[in-house]
Amino acid sequence: MMSRLLETFSARHLVYLVVLLAVTVPLLLNTRLTHTASDETKRFYANIDSLPSGSVVLMSFDFEASAFAEIKPLAEAVLHHCFRQNLRVIGLSLFAEGTALGEQTLSRIAGETGKAYGTDYVYLGFRPQYTSAILAIGESLPKEFPTDYFGVATATMPVLSGVTNYDQIATVISITDGGMPTYWVDYAVTRYHARLQTVLTATMATSFYPYVSSGQIQGLIAGLKGAAEYELLLNESGGGGRGLLAQSVSQVAILAIIVVGNVVGYLGRRRKWQ
Amino acid sequence: MTNRLAWIATLVTGLFMVAQYFIKTNATNAIYSTLLDYYQIIFAVSMIVGGIGLLKQHSLKVQRSSQRRGYSIVTIAAILFMVIAAGIFGTGATSPYQWAFNNLQAPMQATTFSLLAFFVASAAYRGFRVKSTPAFVLALAAVIVLVGKSGFGEMISQQLPAMAGWVLNNPSTAAKRGILIGVGIGSVATALRVILGIERSYR
Questions:
Q1: Minimum-distance CB partner of B177 among A103, A210, A245
Q2: Domain check: are A121 and A43 in the same one?
């Protein structure tokens, strides 16, 4: 059995084994990496920190369940910050799958920080067709969401008092694993001059640097590193810090795999020449 | 006749949507707001049509008794379960719909997504070979960004994160901006083709 397993063991399996160990061992060690916050994360943090108490934050949970492990620490850290600042949080989702996960995350963090539903935060639920939903919020948020996720009328909720469109929203935060910030820029920022920040998976960050440098996105944090940095600024411990070592070790492992791949490739080519 | 009606509807709606961006009156705002409502309604209905289409497609596969009929049966059962469970018990926190989402769909999607790490590593081993100057530049940029953006970057050198930031904010952003401008111009051209009836995907 063992010899048969070894016979079929190829370089690909070795790569898989290295990645498995690189991810799991650091998680089991439960060690945290010493790090500092980047300027990017500090800017996002400062944007939230500078908002006066009672300001309205529209948080859109635009991600799928597949990316939740990476998005969750980021969303939790930003929510902690918002509630610590006594900001009013309006949650919604433009992705059907993000709806339940957004509600669970928002309710849990609100519960941990002692915030009251309807007064300090509300969850408006899902709206199909994100472009029209983003535009419709710009026209009238109460008309677009006459009831919340649970079917309760929103008109009398203190958290939504005086909120009619983006003019009363201090910042929109799109928490996403895809291209949603592009739509927020195209339809909310360009047309209604909304102030947008975004929370992303690490792989998506590169796509949105042009919007950050143009000022259309005012703040961006991404990946487990972003979450760990945000937790550092908040002086809290969370999933970002826990996952950073595992992610960093796997990144170095992939780098080592690339180097080994090149050496093996070079040796193979040299053998051919000879 | 139907085609012409569809084109006229596209032309009128398209031109109105362009015009209302610049002309702000109560009437244009009211029509615009109504159009946004219809946009969402049509999208919601299209999701139902898509669901029915998916059910039909998989029902056919089951009937034809293909080798992969098992997957189709699971798909049909999953769709029907979620629709019926949501219809009868709602989508609340303790509903069967939510239970299935939290305990089946979310872990399955997370598992599938996690497998990407293994495939990326395997692909990097086999495909990331430095055989030419452009490949070397690509590999160098990848190494700088990968290490600079990892947790070890600043431990190795304080300059590494700054170098990674430079790569992302300058060459990468410049290339991305060029692509975005191209996409923007392409979108305008495509929109014009649809409005003017040159492109008729609804035919």
A1: A210
A2: yes
Residues A13 and A8: their CA atoms lie apart, in Å, by 9
Name the residue of chain B whose CA is nearest to A253's CA. Answer: B121
Please state, in angstroms and rounded to a whole number, the distance separating the CA atoms of residues B54 and B48. Answer: 10
State pTM to two decimals: 0.88
Which residues in chain B have Cβ-Cβ distances shorter than 8 Å to A139?
29, 32-33, 36
CB contact under 8 A, B118 and A248: no
The residue among A13, A39, A72, A255 with the most chain B CBs within 10 A of its CB, best to mutate, is A255
Question: From the list B21, B29, B150, which residue is nearest A251 (CB)?
Answer: B150
In whole angstroms, what is the distance from residue A191 CA to residue B3 CA? 32
Task: Provide the residue range defining the domain that includes B26.
Answer: 1-89
Residue-range definition of the domain harbouring residue A46: 39-236
Check whether residue A231 and residue A257 sit in a common domain: no
Q: Which of B40, B130, B150 sits opposite A252 (nearest CB)?
A: B150
Question: Quick check: B78 pLDDT over 90?
Answer: yes
B160 neighbors B147 (Cβ within 8 angstroms): yes
Provide the number of structural domains found in chain B: 3
The C-alpha atoms of residue A239 and residue A223 are separated, in whole angstroms, by: 11
> Would you say the ipTM is above 0.90?
no
CB B121 to CB A254 under 8 A? Answer: yes
Element (H, E) at A123: strand A121-126
Q: Does the pLDDT of residue B190 top 90, yes or no?
A: yes
Q: Supply the CATH number for residue A177's domain.
A: 3.40.50.620
pLDDT in tens, A210-229: 999 999 999 999 989 999 99
